[in-house]
Write a structure and sequence with these properties.
Strand content: 25-35%
Strand order of the largest sheet: 6-5-4-3-2-1-14
Number of helices: 9
CATH superfamily: Ribonuclease Z/Hydroxyacylglutathione hydrolase-like
Distance between the termini: 48 Å
Shape: globular
Number of domains: 1
CATH topology: Metallo-beta-lactamase, Chain A
Length: 326
């Protein structure tokens, strides 16, 4: 074996060992583990867009799949070949743009079961669209490698459309081996349908807000949650971005910065909500603006929230992992 081959083999083995260790940790049954795969939104940044992985009782549940999600899933060594189901909150592209890649890449890497894609009315059109867009890709892979290596049935995904209450109640949409996922109405006007999710297992609860403003429903569904994963906006920072664009003559971006403030929850509101609901741990995702500098993170997100919330706060970055022991 020459040196180049030796080094390549060693690198592959190290990656395999790292992935095996990650999979063993995540698929354990004595804890629920959330991985904030993508913590950005549509504002430009190096973050992947909205995507959260939840590992519960050996199941791998994925919530949203914005741009960059598939690449980040693999970079984090998550077992995409063992992906159990996907749940989409709404049909803004930063929440489903990479769904086609998640379906395709999980098949290429080894998924051999039909992948369920859960979502509110309209999810069928989304899944059908990706099926059409990737049809030739699927055919090429099987033709090149053979059906034993790339069985065409493994490339399939099925849309499981659900109805949900708009009056505040949570509607069960997935129940499997003690794990229950329920959908509840989120408010992100004029976007509709739009939901958040509540995941329950072994007396523990994880809530994913989706994109929303402050609502009584979110307070109710977050009551005593072990973990609330919420979108968040630093309203003052976005106002400053608006003002800078107005001064620079960029009226279109300024208008967008004005408009987005009316359909996201502010940091101050989120801190008060988490305290009122008795949330044990609050994790921030879909950060707007998506700042990484510690000083700005403290100013825009940590300070306004901890002034109102006494629980544990996690400011998410791509790859942040949170474990809830059972």
């Amino acid at each position: 074996m020459d040196l180049g081959t030796f080094l390549a083999v060693r690198m592959i083995r190290r990656r395999q060992a790292a992935r095996a260790a990650t999979v063993k940790t995540l698929l354990r049954t004595d804890a629920i583990t959330a991985v904030l795969v993508g913590t950005g939104g549509p504002m430009p940044s190096d973050r992947a867009q909205s995507c959260t992985a939840l590992f519960v009782n050996g199941q791998f549940l994925l919530f949203d799949a914005g741009d960059g999600a598939a690449r980040r899933l693999e970079a984090l060594n998550l077992p995409v070949d063992q992906l159990t189901a996907v749940f989409i909150t709404h049909f803004h592209a930063d929440h489903f743009a990479d769904l086609g890649e998640v379906i395709d890449r999980s098949w290429i890497i080894g998924r051999r079961h039909v992948l369920p894609i859960h979502g509110p009315p309209g999810i069928g059109s989304i899944v059908d669209g990706f099926r059409v867009a990737y049809a030739q890709e699927y055919g090429y892979r099987t033709a090149h490698h053979g059906s034993e290596v790339m069985p065409p049935e493994g490339s399939e995904a099925c849309a499981l459309e659900f109805q949900y209450s708009k009056e505040g109640q949570a509607t069960p949409v997935y129940i499997s081996d003690g794990v229950k996922v329920s959908a509840f109405a989120a408010q992100h006007p004029p976007i509709e349908p739009n939901v958040g999710y509540r995941v329950e297992y072994a007396g523990k609860t994880v809530v994913l807000s989706g994109d929303t403003v402050l609502t009584d429903t979110l307070v109710t569904q977050s009551r005593d949650a072990d973990l609330l994963i919420s979108d968040v906006m630093a309203m003052d920072a976005v106002r400053q971005i608006q003002a800078a664009n107005e001064a620079g003559g960029n009226a279109a971006v300024a208008r967008i910065m004005h408009d987005i403030r009316d359909y996201h929850i502010g940091a101050e509101e989120l801190g008060a909500l988490a305290e009122q609901a008795g949330v044990k741990r609050l994790a921030l995702t879909h950060l707007a603006p998506p700042v990484d500098q510690k000083l700005l993170v403290r100013r825009f997100f940590q300070r306004p929230i901890v002034a109102r919330y006494s629980g544990e706060l996690v400011v998410g970055r791509d790859g942040t992992r949170i474990a809830i022991p059972l």
